[in-house]
Design brief:
Elements: E1 3-12, E2 15-19, E3 24-27, E4 33-35, E5 39-43, E6 46-52, E7 57-60, E8 65-67, H1 70-73, H2 93-102, H3 112-115, E9 130-132, E10 166-173, E11 176-178, E12 182-189, E13 197-201, E14 206-209, E15 215-221, E16 232-235, E17 238-243, E18 248-252, E19 257-261, E20 266-275, E21 285-286, E22 290-297, E23 305-311, E24 314-320, E25 326-332, E26 344-358, E27 363-365, E28 370-376, E29 381-388, E30 391-392, E31 397-404, E32 412-418, E33 421-427, E34 432-438, E35 449-460, E36 465-467, E37 472-478, E38 486-493, E39 496-497, E40 502-509, E41 517-521, E42 524-528, E43 534-540, E44 551-562, E45 567-569, E46 574-580, E47 585-591, E48 595-596, E49 601-608, E50 616-622, E51 628-633, E52 638-644, E53 655-666, E54 671-673, E55 678-684
Parallel strand pairs: 3-15, 10-18, 11-19, 20-27, 21-28, 29-36, 30-37, 38-45, 39-46, 47-54, 48-55
Antiparallel strand pairs: 1-4, 1-6, 2-3, 2-5, 5-8, 6-7, 7-9, 10-12, 12-15, 13-14, 13-17, 16-19, 20-22, 22-25, 23-24, 23-26, 26-28, 29-31, 31-34, 32-33, 32-35, 35-37, 38-40, 40-43, 41-42, 41-44, 44-46, 47-49, 49-52, 50-51, 50-53, 53-55
């Protein structure tokens, strides 16, 4: 068959059908193609507007029948203005045009005789339909641009009054169909219909049996092809019969059922994974972030869909709620630790579908229903620190305490630099370690110092990142004056005699000085070179004499400078040198002169060999006298003694007077000697002038 028109619009609440020449009907919808030879039937309050192939617009009013044959397609007759006139109170041409532009139902705008199939035909029983053709510009406003005169009604649409009779009607249907298709309902008459017959089924379908035919069919669409288990059984019966010209119809429509079977459509289950928040690469997920696994289907389940899944090795069930396309499950990627875990994966996989809660799908496929995210380390920093306490020089050493902000996994070693030496320090399971550096150095010097240790690296421990910045510590080593740390200063000397040139004082340090040491004494400074412990001071003392004048020379330390000593004790730093006399003997000489007997006296002169130191005298023994005499000496050690000797006589009696020094007194002499200290004066007779002559 050739196309003759298409359905432009269907308005109203009824239904419109197209019946082909074999009696098979189909329900019309906008856009359907109409074939030449089909019959259009409107049932109920519905109007069909058709766009003919030649551009004309035709409308079929409610409850009307129109056969699409040559009578409808021919348009070489142009109606007169009178034929096309619309009488009052019909709408004007402008009203029709405006209605077409607005898409308004023309039946509401045109008069009844023009809108219905019953009133629009000619007096000779022509086709009852309204033809609306394109309006030609420049013509009479009440004229339409088409040439057509409605012919007589086709024979199959006319009533042929014949003798009414009874017949039997049998309703049959496809026993089984698949969803997405349709059920063909067929009405079969024992006798051909005398007039057009309309059979309305209980499901609303309408079967048209043209006059002269004894059968008609209609294809009723069933549910669309979908993914759900929704097979059904349809039952239909004859509801009403109109026309046909029969006196009585016996209907056989019992057990007219059709099974609508599902087509087995597969719905895939898919799994996706994203970083929580929707940002981030699932192939490079930083540990500590959360993952969202989305379990989804292409079509929403009609009941809850329960999936048995494994996420990150943990089996669980997830539910996609009825009406929803997916469900999300959020899990931790893995704990954010400070240790190297490397790249690991978290996989979400659908293992099976619940037999009881399967979403009413015809078939579910879980093939490939899996998604994986790769988790990587994020470089958490473990910080190293080191500390130490100050010590004194007397302590055994410094203990450095190394600590890591996180305990190690497995063995860990810290590299610690002290001076130019690197030490490997084992880190215990508690994240700490110690390094002992000997520093014991008790001494007498001012030498405070320090020891610095720096952590340069950490190996092992399975740490992601170790930061050793600022991991340095310094321990101060302070001086302390302990036993043996005080430097004592001693002073020594030796006794000398008065004839010695000098006295030497020797200063001794109990510890050598690290620099030159100057020892101040009352007799002068003693300088001890750096590294030495002794120094001397020479004091001139020579003083040879004959006097008893022993002495001493004492040196006392009053200050000590230099040496870099922590402490100095010179409280006992004093020394005395004794200067003894040498025994010089002081003698005495006795001189006199001889006299004669006429002299008044004899004088003895005494002279010491050394001047006295202070008063001095000599003890003199005059021979023949029982007592002694004392002769005082002057400062020069000289003195005299006069002995009266005058004895002029006539006798021969010459004599001597001897004076002997028996002792030297005073003078502060070291030693005296009177050996040989005597003198004798002779008293000789004299006969001066013969005076002593005895005359006989």
């Amino acid at each position: 068959m050739a196309q003759i028109a298409s359905v432009a619009a269907i308005t109203g609440t009824g239904k419109a059908f197209a019946v082909n020449e074999q009696g098979v009907s189909r329900e019309l919808k906008a856009g359907d193609v109409l074939q030449k030879g089909e019959t259009i039937r409107t049932v109920g309050d519905v109007q069909v507007e058709m766009l003919m192939d030649d551009g004309r617009l035709l409308a079929v009013a409610p409850n009307q029948v129109l056969r699409l044959d040559e009578n409808v397609s021919e348009s070489d007759q142009r109606p007169t203005a009178q034929d096309s006139a619309v009488g009052a109170p019909a709408a004007t041409a402008d009203t029709v045009l405006q209605a077409l532009e607005r898409g308004t139902d023309l039946s509401t705008q045109l008069e009844a005789t023009a809108a219905g199939l019953g009133g629009g035909g000619g007096a000779d029983g022509g086709s009852t339909f309204v033809q609306l053709l394109r309006i030609t510009e420049g013509v009479d406003p009440l004229s339409y641009n088409y040439n057509y005169t409605a012919p007589d009604l086709a024979p199959d649409l006319q009533s042929n009054p014949e003798t009414l009779t009874a017949t039997t009607m049998v309703l049959t249907a496809d026993p089984a169909v698949f969803e997405g298709g349709g059920v063909t309902y067929t009405v079969t008459l024992v006798d051909p219909a005398l007039t057009d017959m309309t059979v309305t089924l209980s499901n609303g379908a309408v079967i048209l049996i043209p006059a002269g035919s004894n059968t008609g069919s209609v294809l009723v669409p069933v549910q669309g092809d979908d993914v759900y288990k929704d097979g059904e059984t349809l039952q239909a019966s004859v509801d009403t019969v109109q026309g046909g010209g029969f006196l009585e119809i016996t209907v056989t429509d019992q057990n007219v059922t059709t099974v609508v079977n599902d087509t087995i459509d597969t719905t895939p289950v898919s799994v996706g994974v994203t970083v929580l928040g929707g940002e981030g690469d699932v192939n490079n997920v930083i540990e500590g972030n959360e993952l969202t696994f989305r379990f989804s289907v292409d079509a929403a389940p009609q009941t809850d869909l329960v999936l048995n899944v494994t996420i990150g090795g943990v089996e669980q069930t997830v539910t996609i709620a009825a009406g929803s396309l997916f469900t999300d499950v959020t899990v931790n990627s893995r704990a954010d630790e400070n240790y190297v875990q490397g790249a690991t994966t978290v996989t979400g996989t659908v293992n099976s579908v619940s037999l009881r809660d399967s979403g009413n799908f015809e078939n579910l496929s879980i093939v490939g229903a899996s998604a994986t995210a790769t988790i990587v380390d994020d470089g958490d920093v473990t910080r190293a620190s080191i500390s130490a306490n100050d010590v004194t020089e007397n302590d055994a050493g410094v203990t450095f305490n190394i600590s890591l902000s996180n305990v190690p996994q497995g063995a860990a070693t810290a590299q610690v630099l002290v001076g130019e030496t690197t030490y490997n320090v084992a880190i215990g399971a508690n994240g700490t370690g110690t390094l002992f550096i000997p520093t014991n150095d008790p001494d007498a010097y001012k030498d405070p110092s320090s020891v610095t240790a720096t952590v340069t690296g950490v190996t092992g421990g399975n740490y992601e990142v170790v930061n050793v910045a600022s991991a340095t510590a310094t321990a101060d080593i302070t001086d302390i004056v302990g036993e043996g740390d005080t430097t004592t200063v001693s002073l020594a000397t030796s006794n000398v005699n008065e004839d010695a040139a000098s006295v030497t004082f020797t200063a001794t340090l109990s510890n050598p000085g690290e620099s030159a040491v100057t020892i101040t004494t009352n007799l002068g400074d003693i300088v001890i070179a750096a590294g030495d412990t002794e120094g001397t001071l020479v004091v001139n003392t020579k003083d040879s004499d004959v006097y008893v004048d022993p002495s001493s020379l004492t040196a006392t330390v009053s200050a000590v400078i230099g040496g870099n000593f922590e402490a100095v004790d010179f409280s006992a730093a004093t020394a005395t040198a004794r200067i003894t006399d040498t025994i010089d003997i002081t003698g005495v000489t006795v001189t006199t002169a001889d006299v004669n007997e006429n002299a008044e006296s004899v004088t003895f002169n005494f002279a010491l060999t050394n001047a006295p130191d202070g008063t001095s005298s000599v003890t003199v023994q005059i021979a023949g006298e029982t007592g002694t005499r004392t002769v005082e000496l002057d400062t020069d050690g000289k003195g005299s003694l006069t002995i009266t000797t005058a004895n002029p006589d006539v006798y021969v009696d010459s004599q001597t007077v001897t004076a002997t020094v028996t002792a030297i007194n005073g003078g502060n002499f070291e030693a005296t000697s009177v050996e040989g200290a005597n003198a004798t004066a002779k008293v000789t007779d004299i006969n001066e002038d013969g005076e002593d002559t005895t005359t006989v």
